[in-house]
C-alpha cells in the first residue's frame, strides 16, 4: 500500500479509536470464528486454529478471543453445538 507501519497504526488509532494490535486481533478472531463454525475445521485443536488465525500460541489466542468476544473459544464451541 506504500503506507508505513507507524502511519497506518496512527490512522487506525485516530479513525477506529483502537490500537493497531486490537484492530488486527479482531480480524484474526473473526477468522477463527469462521473456522470454528465449520464442522470440518472444528475437528482441529484450538492450537491449530490459533495458528491458522495468526496467533503464535494458544494462550494469546484465548486471551484475545475472550477480550474480543467476551467468552473463551471453548465456550464459543459449546454455544455452537
In short:
By secondary structure, this protein is mostly helical.
Keywords:
81 residues; mainly alpha
Describe this structure in words.
This protein has 81 residues and is an all-alpha fold. Helix content is 70%, strand content 0%. It contains five helices and no strands. It has helices at 5-16, 20-37, 46-52, 58-69, 73-80. Helix 2 (20-37) packs across helix 4. The termini are far apart. The mean pLDDT is 94.
Mean pLDDT: 94
Mind describing the biggest β-sheet?
none
Order of helices and strands: HHHHH
**How large is the radius of gyration?**
14 Å
Helix amount, in percent? over 70%
Q: Would you tell me the structural class of the helices and strands?
A: mainly alpha
State the distance separating the first and last CA atoms: 41 Å
Helix tally? 5
DSSP strand count: 0
Percent range for β-strand residues: under 5%
From the spread of the alpha carbons, the general shape counts as elongated
Low-confidence stretches: none
Strand-helix topology:
Blueprint: H1 5-16, H2 20-37, H3 46-52, H4 58-69, H5 73-80
Helix pairs in contact: 2-4
Amino acid at each position: 500500500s506504500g503506507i508505513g507501519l507507524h502511519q497506518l497504526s496512527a490512522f487506525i488509532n485516530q479513525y477506529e479509536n483502537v490500537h493497531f494490535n486490537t484492530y488486527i486481533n479482531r480480524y484474526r478472531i473473526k477468522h477463527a470464528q469462521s473456522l470454528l463454525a465449520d464442522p470440518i475445521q472444528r475437528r482441529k485443536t484450538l492450537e491449530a486454529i490459533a495458528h491458522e488465525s495468526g496467533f503464535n500460541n494458544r494462550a494469546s489466542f484465548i486471551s484475545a478471543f475472550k477480550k474480543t468476544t467476551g467468552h473463551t473459544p471453548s465456550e464459543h464451541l459449546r454455544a455452537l453445538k
